[in-house]
Amino acid sequence: MFKTATKIGITSLLRRRTRSALLILMIAVSLWGLLFIEGIYDGMTEQMIANAIRSDSGHISIFADGYRLNPDLSRWIENTIELDEFLNERQQIKSTVARLKQDGLVATAHYSRGIAILGIDLEREANHSHLEGYLRHGELNFGERQRGAIIGFKLAKKLKVAIGNKIILSAQNSAGEMASTALKVKGIIKTHNMAFDENAVFIAAAKARELLSMPTGISQIAISIANEGEIASLQQQLQEEFPNLTIKRWDELYPALQQSRVLMAGFKQVINIIIFSIAALGIFGVMLVSVLERMREFGIMLAIGTKFSQIGIIILVEASILGCAGFGLGALAGFSTLYYFKIYGLDLSVFSSALDEFGLDAITYAIIRPDYFFTALAAIILASVFSIIIPLRILKKTKPVDAINAI
Amino acid sequence: MSDFLKIQQINKTFQPDKEVRIEALQDINLEIEAGDFVVISGPSGSGKTTLLNIVGGLENATGGTVILDGQNVTGLAEKELSHLRRNHIGFIFQAYNLIPVLNVRENIEFIMKLQGTTQRACDQGVEEIAKKLHIDDLLKKLPHQLSGGQQQRVAVARAVAAEPKLILADEPTANLDSQNAATLMDMLEHLNQHEGITIIFSSHDPMVIERAKHSIVLKDGKVVSNERFN
Ligand SMILES: Nc1ncnc2c1ncn2[C@@H]1O[C@H](COP(=O)(O)OP(=O)(O)O)[C@@H](O)[C@H]1O
Ligand SMILES: [Mg+2]
Q: ipTM more than 0.85?
């Protein structure tokens, strides 16, 4: 019976070719567009998150208690021996970096500006934040005498400096006195994290210790782990082991980014409701007309003893063919488009300045998740089922004899 | 003698709106034997279609009972009626009997599939019926590619495929020329004589009416004549 139903469905749809094709196309095009939005939006969100994790927070960041509220030199993590030991033992940890941070001032002959001085260890950063990927000009090297500095491209623009130019860095040291040092710009980076592109100067850790008179201590340790699922448990372990330290996950440090993910989840539901509505309304329209046109055909079927449920199957199969064909076409188009943008990226550099504000790259790489397709398919199948309720009720109310007589 | 079909005190009133009452059938009493070949004739509007529909379980009577092979048809729910029509009654309507998107073979198979017949048995059944009714060359055609006469022959084939006890045919020749009408009657006669299927058909064509073994004439919803020829 199912085979016959399919045969009746396909043939009936082919008889109403233009109408069926238009509906299939309508479902396909809307699905295509919505899949595109989903994949690109996810790509953007994940890129922002990845940038924040890479350039700053890692998956987990460790601070001394009170540092985040009042980040001054007296609130650095003093003793890191036990912490280092603990972190070294954890297999799931991919990399850790220690950063020394202090607010300061950068100045050139023409201009000065408040920034964060970040003392880093380039070798360790290489494994963690892959700064080389962010490098736009110059090199990632502080020089033999550690007199080099790496700055963000926006700051470079503001200071009107290029590779090799001199900048003066000053900050309050641990004794409460202003200390200064002259450095040469060795590299210019673009991280898409505003905090770094515009408001930070990276210098060698040793140089920072010298400038700030801080022979020991660390302001932040950022940890990256292999499996994101273990972030929360590692945070808990760390907190239990080191109750006097502040242990924060990336999403606690960048709540806006986490919200963006949550927002996306809600947005996806809206997308699926849109797909459902388009499919349900479209299929409903076509099936209603189709049933009304074929009253006599269904009347004959019922008269010769076809069960109403079997008529229901015939109509459902027909509606599902429409829905599934629309899904298949739309999913194929959507997948191909997203696959292209996953590989080559979507170049939004026209909006580059606006994107920078949001911590976005000019090139967005799409993300393709199987659930885009599964949920859309579920929405469309559900729509097919919903769309035939009214046509079936009309048919149920009509007696076979009346249907046969109605030509 | 035990009657195959007993129609007792059947009444049917249509009430299209409050003021209008149409007494389509009034106190119909009929007995039809198994293997009978019955024509119901009478002018247009005399109640032929209504009577056939009530016998076939397509329409409810306002009063009275129809007993088919010992089963009270008038008391059945729609589900049971559907079962009855599917398994025990073959229908041939005046025109447009066939499912337009299915070819002849599939149309004949359709009812067998409804009965749960396997594909192999369907194939075998279709071949057999097609040969018997001389429509084997039409099997691959779609209904719209057939003439009216051919369509009605296929409708007969589909009715037979259900292996019914009773075939009801409402003016099966009304849309056919006399040549095709004669062929269709030959077919029905053959099924009646050789397969022993009870057939009740309606008509107002004298050429067709005279072929029956049992003639019932309706007028204004009443039986005005009921004769058996031997
Ligand atoms: N569904 C219906 N609603 C109202 N009146 C009907 C309906 N069906 C039949 N009738 C009336 O019942 C009478 C008998 O009709 P019918 O059985 O079709 O006659 P016949 O088949 O002999 O031409 C007619 O007067 C017809 O108008
Ligand atoms: Mg009639």
A: yes
